[in-house]
Design a protein that fits this description.
The chain starts with a strand and ends with a helix. The chain has helices at 276-280, 315-326, and strands at residues 2-6, 31-33, 37-39, 45-50, 57-64, 72-75, 82-83, 87-91, 110-111, 117-120, 125-127, 129-134, 137-149, 153-159, 162-169, 187-193, 197-204, 211-216, 221-228, 233-240, 255-257, 265-267, 271-273, 288-290. The protein is 5% helix and 39% strand. Strands 3, 4, 5, 6 and 7 form a 5-stranded antiparallel sheet that branches. A 4-stranded antiparallel sheet has the order 9-18-19-20, with no helix packed on it. By secondary structure, it is mainly β. Residues 5-22, 96-101 and 313-327 have low confidence and may be disordered. A hairpin with a 3-residue loop joins strand 13 and strand 14 (153-159).
């Protein structure tokens, strides 16, 4: 029999926290065998062993309890699957001050209302999401989502080490380049930024609703879902990125992106494609260069670019420095 052991008797008390008629906690002297589950006090969530998709492996996870389709929101042993069906969860006692997994400090691919996405600056803990590799394999894929700190905080989606999507900087009440984080009827959100923590969090306006956002490795997107009780299915509320130009750096340096134009990538006035051959083959990542060398005596000036979203804080500073060096 495989034994899955946790060195924290409080692991299961984070969500499953108070005694009720249903089994919602286990003590260090008890164990959870395959086929047994714990149900949270309010009946919203269930913890137990499960097998995803066509996999033959067993995982310890948490899923919604009160909907017909199993929707897993957290997996304990993502990189250490259990082989076979004879499994046992054993909880070992430790000191209260050393809680593990407290407040979902180690999320999987899903962010739920009240969960934090971001940094604990006191401990260096970085709470970030990582997608399942596939519907059969919950081990971490290369698609990740987290808060990044370069000046003002922003939310960044990465594929491996490459930046794939960014929300733009936090400007006090929203992210500058993300319409998904504006006013909506489903949820409120905030970015807490102080000397102790920097994190994004959202709350449901109607607590009877169910909403989550999850990373999709196959489509390389972050999806936000709400539960539709009438159709008994998850309804897709939004996706990010949601179009070609939402993706980071599609048109390269000095290029602009507009989904309403063909091609979507255009060079700014006074610039030309760095590589005409690649540009004409729809490979725009090398961007654009000046059509002729800068000459400050010939009236070179800055041009106003309208409707720019998600601009970096340092853009103007970079341009001023480069102009100053060359002029």
């Amino acid at each position: 029999m495989d034994i899955l052991s946790f060195s924290a008797c409080f692991l299961l008390l984070i969500i499953f926290s108070k005694v009720s008629i249903a089994l919602d906690m286990i003590s260090p002297s008890e164990s959870l065998t395959d086929g047994m589950t714990l149900v949270s006090e309010d009946g919203s969530f269930e913890l137990g062993f499960f097998t995803p998709g066509s996999s033959k492996n067993r995982y310890l996870g948490i899923w919604y309890n009160n909907i017909p389709m199993q929707t897993v929101v957290w997996v304990a042993n993502r990189i250490n699957p259990i082989y076979g069906s004879a499994v046992l969860l054993k909880v070992e006692k430790m000191e209260k001050k050393n809680y593990l997994w407290q407040r979902f400090d180690y999320p999987s691919d899903t962010l739920l209302p009240g969960m934090k996405l971001g940094y604990d600056l006191r401990t260096g803990l970085n709470r970030r999401l990582s997608a399942w590799k596939s519907t059969d394999d919950p081990s971490p894929g290369d698609l990740t989502l987290g808060i990044e700190l370069q000046g003002n905080p922003e939310m960044v989606l990465r594929k491996g080490s490459e930046k794939y999507y960014r929300t733009g900087l936090w400007v006090g009440n929203k992210f500058s380049g993300s319409p998904d984080h504006g006013s909506n009827p489903i949820h409120d959100f905030d970015l807490v930024w102080n000397e102790k923590e920097v994190y994004y969090i959202f709350f449901l306006k109607n607590k009877s609703l169910m909403s989550r956002f999850v990373l999709n490795q196959t489509e390389n997107i972050r999806q936000r879902y709400t539960w539709n009780p009438e159709s008994r299915t998850w309804k897709l509320f939004s996706t990010l990125p949601n179009n070609f130009c939402d993706r980071f750096g599609q048109c390269g340096p000095n290029g602009s992106c507009d989904d309403n134009k063909l091609p979507a990538c255009q060079c700014f006035k006074g610039f030309r494609p760095k590589s005409a051959e690649e540009w004409n083959s729809s490979d725009w990542v090398q961007g654009c260069v000046h059509t002729k060398p800068l000459n400050c005596r010939s009236g070179v000036a800055f041009i106003k670019i309208a409707k720019v979203t998600g601009y970096p804080k340092f853009l103007g500073q970079q341009n001023n420095e480069s102009q100053g060096m060359q002029c």
